[in-house]
Amino acid sequence: MGANRTRKPFDAYAAEVIRFKARQLVGKAGFTKSDREDLEQELALDFLRRSRNFNPDKSKRSTFTTWVVAHHVATILEGRHAPTRDVRKEGPSLDAMIADDGGKQVERITIMDARANHPGRSPEELHPLKLDVQSVIETLPPRLREIAEGLKTHSVTEIAQQHGMSRRHMHRLVNKIRQHFDEAGLRGYLR
Fold first, then answer.
1. Which helix (H) or strand (E) holds 97?
2. Could you report the per-residue pLDDT of 106-124, keeping only the tens digit for each?
3. What pLDDT is stored for residue 13 in this prediction?
4. Nearest C-alpha neighbor of 147 from the set 29, 114, 157
């Protein structure tokens, strides 16, 4: 057992298994060729951490190596498919090329920056609009008024949670608010 403790934990076999498994991950779960090196490093680091647990009385070194690397690959894939990280549900890349208003190909982030920094209305134009919106909100029944005021700074989900109701019910109430804005000719200003 003492001889195995002095043996280097990272041998040629471990390096090959790690390279092979990283190559297998490319094209799965949103990984690309540019991720391969990072995957190799992550697998190698995990293997080095776990290599001190190797016990030659329980398995051969190659079996231990294959099992540890395969287990970490499964952990990586599980993490990528977790509901909060599922790459299939991620939005489009900000680096993706799309057509702007003039048909010229630009990065998506360029258009988003332009829209965020230049919303299209000057403060002079926004002031009367704010007054109109506030006057419609003041005509709403108390419960709808409270929800409309909350929607200025919170999401529908947050407001539903604050009021202890389902999102479905909250959406029904939001639709009633929209009807009031429709009747006042202001629906086009709602998100």
1. strand 97-99
2. 776 666 555 555 455 566 6
3. 92
4. 157
pLDDT digits (tens, 9 = 90+) for 139-169: 889 999 998 888 888 888 888 888 888 888 8
Q: How large is the C-alpha radius of gyration of the chain?
A: 28
Work out the average pLDDT over 47-73. 91
CB 36 within 8 A of CB 22: yes
CATH class held by domain 123-189: mainly alpha
**Would you give the DSSP letter of residue 15?**
H
CA distances (Å), origin 40, targets 26, 35, 53, 132: 11, 9, 20, 59
Query: Is 131 exposed, middle or buried (CB count within 10 Å of its CB: 0-12, 13-18, 19+)?
Result: exposed
β-strand partners of 107: 97
Question: How much helix, strand and coil, in percent to the nearest 5, is found in the chain?
Answer: 65, 5, 30
Alpha-carbon distance of 7 to 5, in angstroms, equals 6
Burial class (CB in 10 A: 0-12, 13-18, 19+), 175: exposed
| HSE-CB of 62 using CA atoms within 13 angstroms | 3
How does pLDDT run across 4-39, given as a tens digit for each residue?
444 566 789 999 999 999 999 888 877 888 888 999
Give the domain ranges of the chain.
2-89, 91-120, 123-189
For the whole prediction, is pTM greater than 0.85? no
